[in-house]
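Q: Convert this sequence to structure tokens.
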Amino acid sequence: MIDAVVYSAGSVRTYDDLDDAKAADGTTWVSATEASPDELDRVASVFDVHPLTVEDVRHNVRPKTEEFTEYSFTLVKDAELRRGESSFDEEIDDEPLGVYIGEDWLVTLSTATVPAVDRVWGNVVREDQRLLQRGADFTAYRVIDLLVDEYFDILDDVETQIETIEEEVLESTEIRTLERINSVRRDLLAFRKMAWPTREAVNLLARGDPPFVRQETEKYYRDVSDHLVQVVDLVETYRDLTNGARDIYLNSLSQSTNEVMKTLTVVATIFIPLTFVVGVYGMNFADSPFNMPELSWRFGYPAVMLGMGLLTAIVLVHFRRQEYL
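A:
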């Protein structure tokens, strides 16, 4: 779907024809959301944007900023937590958004609905003077700023998951806990791969290198850049927390295994001498002067059982004194 609007300090006008919208006086904004390949090519043709940048939007490459003669191109990503296709865990899903900033025009291209674009578009249509009195670079800033604000919402959800995991690892060593830890670690890794290049892309806009970002707008992009620094720091912090939770889980699992092995060791230590005794007295050779005389003793069996019980008691007392039990 392609929408076009032309706005200035005093008015907002919508257009159906892209050529008329581009030629109109004021700031032109063309938004193509959930756009088909044909619609993307149509917008690219009208505004003479490089086809490779359109391919970047289609193929969801890493965020970046590129400068061209008539415009600046920035690729950012809209992200949200969605239920995974192969699991019940939430996974980070991102959609590319191409932002083209020209002298008096702005083009946003995406293959899916981007809430940040819809919100800023609604503000323009409702004649928000903070947007109407400024140019295309400020409107682009508002879109990118809202995208970055959504990153904080995602990280808040991830933090809640980490807090739940930290409680679980202290109470349970179920494999489900480890799966949740690995799921969060994968999300944070994917988020880090998105946040780092986004920060670099916004830094280019904040430094004043692109000619279509006015000096008075640079400070707004610097503010977004500062927010992205916070995002990256939070991602690194949460990665450390998940690594710590995984270490605690593995230590707990190892401790649980050690307890089982300790119990098995005690049982084996008790039964090894008993097995020896039973084996010796179980040979039952007869008619030889070298046979054990107690085999024919009336109290031989009770004596052996008593001796075995006493041996077991001695082993248990020893383990108790060594604090093994």
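The chain has nine helices and seven strands.
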